[in-house]
Write a structure and sequence with these properties.
The two termini are about 30 Å apart. By secondary structure, the protein is of the alpha+beta class. The strands form three sheets. The protein has a five-stranded mixed sheet, with helices on one face. It has eight helices and eleven strands. The longest helix has about 55 residues. The chain folds into three domains: about 150 residues, no CATH class; about 80 residues, Helix Hairpins; about 140 residues, Heat Shock Protein 90 (2-Layer Sandwich). InterPro entries: HAMP_dom, HATPase_C_sf, HATPase_dom, His_kinase_dom, HisK_dim/P_dom, HisK_dim/P_sf, Sig_transdc_His_kin-like_C, TCS_sensor_his_kinase. Its EC number is 2.7.13.3. One of its GO terms (molecular function) is kinase activity.
Amino acid sequence: MPRARRAARPGLARHLVLTYVALALLVAGLLSWLSVWSVGKLEAHLQRIDMGMAVERVRGDFLAGMDPGRPNRFFHGDPGSDAFPAWLRRLSPGFHKIEREGRVWHVMVDDLDGQRYMLLRDYTDYEQSQEASHWAAVSGLAGSLALAFVLGSLATRRLLRPLARLAAQVNARGAQPPQTRLAEDYPPDEIGQLAAAFDATYNQLEQALRRERLFTADVGHELRTPLMVISSSCELLREEQALDADGRARLARVEAAAAEMGERLDTYLMLARGGDPAERFARESPLDTARGQLAAWAAVAQRRGMDLSLEEARAAAPALQFPAPLLRAVLSNLIRNSLQYAGPQARVVITAGPDFMQVADNGPGIAAERHEAIFSPFVRGEQPDAGNLGLGLSLVQRICEHQGWRVSLQSQPGQGSVFRVELAAPAGAAA
């Protein structure tokens, strides 16, 4: 399995675990805050009621002439007078919670008939116990999060284990026999449905690819018979003494066309097989290919009123050798494309070097957003010639990908087009 895909499963597992922990933290934190807030509100309300009742009871005892028995805890007198400690004089009527000198006091202030009554209670020990309870809740929350992380990690790994196994099987699917079904190894859950969907899609593609390869092989096989007939007939005609020079020239063109068709069939079969390194093809230099294609297309360019020429790029290094049929197929389709779309009176220049081929024209050019699309099958220009199926540049792209070559396009509307093929010998093949 590639390194990038091996790293994908831990990343997904980590993401799921962190999401689970984040949700647990959010919910636990919200519930803890809501619990503390509601308990605090309830306690304050209950303490307000209790302190209010206590003030009324102590004040009743005091007005009845009884000793309230709460020194330094119960005060009465005019509001703001010296009867109250200085730190309590500015308190308004109602319940108050005050922290002073390390102690926590609950104070209830009540006015009756112009007199103020104030009762204090020391809640320091109670608040400390509440703080300890809060820390216990926080520790419990932290422990719960740790447990959630561990359980989430275990659950996530268990959940992703069959998914990782399915990914490994998908990566190795190409080595399995045709029509292999991965879904049979999984229960009918979501992962089983995913495996079934992959089986259906992959097996359909497998059948389509098999039909394409069989079709290509059948076409290659069936066309070789008429090609052999054409070649045999040409050999017989060449022995005729009555043929003049003009007839022999026509016969030579027929033989060349038949030979080229045979090479094209070999090229299509090679692309259909995929793994064929094209070692059995004859080899030639890009410059020799360019010269041959110039001669083949010169008459077509002349009939269309176009100027087709060849420029030889000088290089100190000797020219490399590449599979001749592939060079011809690539350069022929690039020339045909320029002759079809450059327009009347256009100039098309073929340039060949030791390791590249290039076709440039001064036609209408191609918009940047269409540069990638024109290499797709069945994509044609705005004014294609009759019979053009839009497969030429697609074939160029497929041959270049097969051989490890690189085809590029430089073009702007109104500035012509330049197609360039950088040639390189494929791995394991001699240049």
